[in-house]
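User: Teach me something about this protein's shape.
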Amino acid sequence: MATRRSFIKIVSLLFGGSFSGFSSPLSQQGSIIMTVKGPINPRVMGTTLIHEHILVDFSGAAGYDPTRWNDDDVIKKVLPYLIEVREAGCETLIDCTPNYLGRDVLLIQKLSELSGINILTNTAYYGGSDNKYLPPHAFEETPVQLAARWIKEWEEGIEGTSIKPGFLKISVNPGQLTTISQKLVKAAAITHLKTGLVIASHTGPAVAAWEEVGILKKEGVSPDAFIWVHAQNEADWNQYTKLARSGAWVSLDGLNDDNVPTYTEMLVYLKKEKCLHRVLLSHDAGWYEPDKPDGGNFRRYTVLFKKLLPALGAAGFSRTETQQLVQQNPREAFTIRVRKWPN
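Assistant: First, the predicted structure itself:
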């Protein structure tokens, strides 16, 4: 078995530059993507689904209990869908289920090993849905104290494991931000500046996204570190181009069998506006629900591969343009690095 020193030497040779441990400054580590099985070179991230779910528990933080599901049952249900999407061309899948909503990093790690797909997990808290998924301390602690919890998961591993988060996942209320939502954004900013993890925020309407970008700038974080999750819920497509030109990532992540024509139209518009380089795509699909028989109805992860990409080809998208959407942009967004404002 390789020693820790020899492991570090191997990783350093693979990634270039020194790599003295995950808690060291990122500027000393070189560029990495952090998966549940450890760091990978961004060049091998490949075709990526940036917003999916494997398991979601909607019981809420007050009654949250990770023993409510059995790993073997979940694996039996979910693994065939992961193998299916891997065979369709997916190489990396980003699991956006946050803490207190069903994040189970050891389960995800098992599924990554069994499926052969790189999977990323996250740190931070989900403040949407009337704060149902926030633990009591989230209301009592300062942004600095919350950030310390999330930074610890990056530096030491999640819940006593060696598994580290690959990004931050927060959620805010729709519309003008409440005090607690503002606190989560500030905590995410502090965490980003310490860890370099990109901030994916369940947002929806543009009014909240603009307020989040404003807070991040005040905290010294570039819009380049912000993913506007569920941007497709904003009816004014002009907001996509405005946020994209500010440097933020515009995530159209509700793809399903019924809205492929709409997604194609949105992407044609964004291509015309020369904003494809800031766009991310996914389904927000899955997932196993512990409260439902056999985990409930599982939505496949394959619409992008079987329907959207062919539709984009028919609409005149080149291979280079589609690869930018599903390979280059995810790699750029999730590569770990501190992104300061002003640059």
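Now, about its shape. Residues 71-88 form the longest helix (18 residues). Confidence is low (pLDDT under 50) at residues 1-29. If you'd like, I can walk through any region in more detail.
User: That's plenty for now, thanks!
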